[in-house]
Design goal:
By secondary structure, this protein is of the alpha+beta class. The chain has nine helices and twelve strands. The protein is globular, with a radius of gyration of 25 Å.
């Protein structure tokens, strides 16, 4: 078995609530108000829709704002993995992954562990370089689709609302069902909200609920009956969870460079204004602090360095030279 390569759930498609469009010669992410289920194939126009997308739209008869799903695992942390993540914008390779307490970072000396202050307190996160990043693998249940018990569709998001809501729902349902998440009939729902930061413009996030045609009591009863039937047939859900847990642990990072390049394009666009402020020089004549050194070092890998000439006493104006002499006296 290859070492350093994370074994992730087999993916046969993607679930997204946005797309990448071309504007003024640049490919930029654009949010949407509905789900889109795509394959893993891209064309010049973007990701090619998966046949499941058409089947779901026939059932819904309009915008696709809910998707019937089941989970692969009983452990909530296996179904949804969320970290603070920083990618190399050129190669798509993950550089730093943390949980708000500790992080693993790729350095010139190899993989190292550091304290993770989370993006608001980390100098490497300026300009949106590091943000919450979640991946959730689910099975879509729709009549007429291929029956792949271990194949999954991956939902990727950097939205704080989606990550927080999905994490809470998974833990609540895990507790109420006695840990039978993989047997519960559930669905992904798209919800909207407005905040002061969005200037009253609707923003959309992903929620996880039971299917609308059953109550919580009915869903749990169905899950227990299904769990017993699967165990009687010889299926070991606990062993599957353990195999998945061991597979994730094999690699330093879950995302590969191939997947990372698409993730960077869709979720980590470059904020030029923030980067300009990010590379600003420290106050003249002051000793650079550690945070300044980290900001400048990181900026070199994000933007082209600006050539500047250090000031010297020969190029100082008479007024500046006189003020400097008086201050010295």
């Amino acid at each position: 078995m290859l070492k350093g390569l994370a074994l992730t759930p087999p993916v046969i498609g993607r679930i997204s609530i946005g797309k990448v469009v071309e504007k003024n010669g640049k490919r930029l992410p654009e949010k949407d108000d509905e789900f889109t289920v795509t394959s893993q194939v891209q064309s010049r126009e973007g990701w090619v829709n998966h046949p499941v997308d058409e089947l779901l739209r026939k059932d819904k008869g309009g915008k696709l704002r809910s998707i019937p799903i089941r989970l692969l695992f009983d452990d909530p942390d296996l179904s949804l993995r969320a970290n603070y993540t920083m990618f190399d914008r050129n190669t798509g390779r993950p550089l730093c992954v943390g949980n708000g307490e500790t992080c693993r970072r790729a350095t010139t000396s190899g993989m190292q562990s550091f304290v993770c202050p989370a993006p608001p307190g980390c100098p490497l996160a300026v300009g949106g370089n590091c943000k919450p990043y979640g991946r959730m693998n689910v099975r879509i249940e729709v009549a007429g689709s291929e029956n792949d018990e271990l194949g999954s569709f991956v939902l990727r998001t950097t939205g704080f609302n989606s990550i927080r809501t999905l994490s809470a729902r998974l833990r609540y349902l895990h507790a109420l069902s006695g840990g039978l998440l993989s047997s519960l009939p559930m669905e992904l729902r798209l919800r909207g909200k407005s905040t002061t930061l969005s200037r009253r413009t609707p923003i959309y996030y992903v929620d996880l609920t039971l299917r609308s045609d059953c109550t919580l009591t009915e869903a749990v009863a169905t899950a227990r009956a299904d769990h017993e039937a699967r165990r009687a047939a010889g299926l070991d859900q606990g062993a599957l969870d353990e195999a998945a847990r061991a597979g994730f642990a094999l690699g330093e990072f879950e995302e590969s460079e191939e997947d990372g390049a698409a993730v960077v394009e869709e979720f980590y666009p470059v904020d030029r204004e923030a980067l300009d402020e990010f590379v600003a020089s420290p106050v003249p004549w002051s000793k650079p602090e550690l945070a300044d050194k980290l900001r400048q070092k990181t900026a070199k890998s994000l933007v082209a360095p600006i050539r500047t000439r250090k000031p010297s006493t020969l190029t100082m104006s008479r007024c500046s030279r006189r003020s400097w002499t008086q201050a010295k006296l």
